């Protein structure tokens, strides 16, 4: 049976890259999107389109999806994974960092939803997987703006699920705790980065990107009439 097209954003590293590998092993055609195209191309996956894309560019996002659909058929699932984490104290943090997180983490995700939702509703089938964070359900020091964006992702995902459920479209929210990725490197405050890394070491290690991609694949692989609405996943020793 022909496998359905999967779209993954932020696919050049971390969770997105690991998830791309897993879907490829399952035989799915892929549309991989990220600002850096070379790491995606280096995977050398069959039936895969790799494109450099800024998820905040709505038209470019929609054009990329239409191109992939012309080759592989309708999008069966999208993994809205692209995101940035710029930690900072709200008193001293540059507001431009808030703007960047709001644009990528919320508007970029909504652009992904917009690119696939209408077609899924018409077909009465599809899956939207939004990568939020444990910071989408609880708070952390120096995370004010980031937490705000991730609470938004978790909230809009639940509302979206209610709107899409009558059309047999699943909306799944994945909320990982600390993960071994390069996400922290975006933070410009060196003291915050140092304390964050100490926190990770003190808990004896964090999730791997494969741990999170396994959760994504597990939720996706359920029958279409089964929606795992939310997965909160964290290292066992992560207290908060």
Automatic annotation (TrEMBL):
Name the Gene Ontology molecular function terms of this record.
oxidoreductase activity, acting on the CH-OH group of donors, NAD or NADP as acceptor
Q: Highest taxon of the source?
A: Bacteria
Q: Name one Pfam family in it.
A: adh_short
Q: Which InterPro entries match?
A: NAD(P)-bd_dom_sf, Sc_DH/Rdtase_CS, SDR_fam
- Give the keywords, sorted: Oxidoreductase
Query: Quick check: keyword Nucleotide-binding in the entry?
Result: no
Q: Which PANTHER family would you find in this protein's record?
A: DEHYDROGENASE/REDUCTASE SDR FAMILY MEMBER 11 (PTHR43115), DEHYDROGENASE_REDUCTASE SDR FAMILY MEMBER 11 (PTHR43115:SF4)
Family note: Belongs to the short-chain dehydrogenases/reductases (SDR) family.
* Protein name per UniProt: SDR family oxidoreductase
């Amino acid at each position: 049976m022909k496998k359905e097209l999967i779209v993954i954003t932020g696919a050049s590293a971390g969770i997105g890259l690991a998830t791309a590998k897993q879907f490829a092993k399952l035989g799915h055609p892929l549309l991989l999107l990220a600002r850096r195209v070379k790491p995606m191309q280096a995977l050398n996956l069959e039936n895969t389109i790799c494109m450099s894309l800024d998820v905040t560019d709505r038209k470019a996002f929609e054009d990329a999806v239409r191109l992939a659909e012309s080759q592989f058929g309708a999008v069966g699932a999208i993994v809205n994974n692209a995101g940035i984490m710029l930690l900072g104290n709200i008193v001293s943090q540059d507001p431009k960092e808030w703007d960047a997180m709001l644009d990528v983490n919320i508007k970029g995700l909504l652009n992904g939803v917009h690119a696939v939702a209408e077609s899924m509703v018409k077909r009465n089938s599809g899956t939207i997987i939004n990568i939020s964070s444990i910071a989408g359900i609880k708070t952390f020091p120096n995370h004010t703006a980031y937490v705000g964006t991730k609470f938004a992702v978790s909230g809009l995902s639940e509302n979206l699920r209610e709107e899409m459920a009558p059309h047999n479209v699943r909306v799944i929210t994945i909320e990982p705790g600390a993960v071994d990725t390069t996400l922290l490197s975006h933070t410009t405050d060196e003291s915050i980065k140092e304390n964050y890394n100490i926190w990770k070491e003190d808990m004896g290690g964090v999730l791997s990107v494969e741990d999170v991609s396994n959760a994504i694949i597990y939720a996706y692989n359920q029958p279409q009439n089964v929606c795992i609405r939310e997965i909160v996943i964290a290292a066992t020793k992560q207290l908060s």
